[in-house]
Amino acid sequence: MLKVYLSGEIHTDWREQIIEGAKGLDVSFSAPVTDHDASDDCGVAILGEEPNKFWHDTKGAQINAIRTRKGISDSDVVVVRFGEKYKQWNAAFDAGYAAALGKSLIILHQDEHQHALKEVDAAALAVCKEPQQVAEILRYVLNGTLPA
């Protein structure tokens, strides 16, 4: 079974598109928590309120990092999606962490981010524009078949 971690932006359905495109393949997917409020507030919900927003965010980031590190470490392939709306510094960090661990890295973004992500792209084994391309890569890796 190929273990794939889906990192990156949480504002579109790109994860569902990849999972749908990979139906029938021997793949398991994992991802960060994509409920934005739950992700932001997990630290204070578990460890207690913080009057200072910095510490509120820090608690959440640290708890989310436990999940992220485990997901990336356990994976064979890491897919990192950079969306159009926000600068995803966390996605860039995840890509760097995956690269440092020697994980097979697939980057997903549109042309407008090509220059900003050139170093991230250089660390990847594939750079895609569409989720379906990621699914086709997974199909090729597992079955050796090309798109119809």
How would you describe what is shown here?
- Helices cover about 50% and strands about 15% of the residues.
- It has about 150 residues and is an alpha/beta fold.
- It has a domain at about 1-30 and about 75-145: Rossmann fold (3-Layer(aba) Sandwich).
- The protein has a five-stranded parallel β-sheet with strand order 2-1-3-4-5, sandwiched between helices.
- Helix 4 links the parallel strand 3 and strand 4.
- Helix 2 crosses helix 3 (about 55-75).
- About 30% of the residues are buried.
- The model has no long low-confidence stretch (mean pLDDT about 95).
What tags apply to this protein structure?
Rossmann fold, five-stranded parallel beta sheet, globular, alpha/beta, 6 helices, 148 residues
Layout: helices, strands, pairs:
Blueprint: E1 2-8, H1 14-21, E2 27-30, H2 36-47, H3 53-74, E3 77-81, H4 89-100, E4 104-108, H5 118-123, E5 126-128, H6 131-143
Parallel strand pairs: 1-2, 1-3, 3-4, 4-5
Give the gist of this structure:
Helix 1 (14-21) runs parallel beside helix 6 and helix 2 (36-47) packs across helix 3 (53-74). This protein is of the alpha/beta class and 148 residues long.
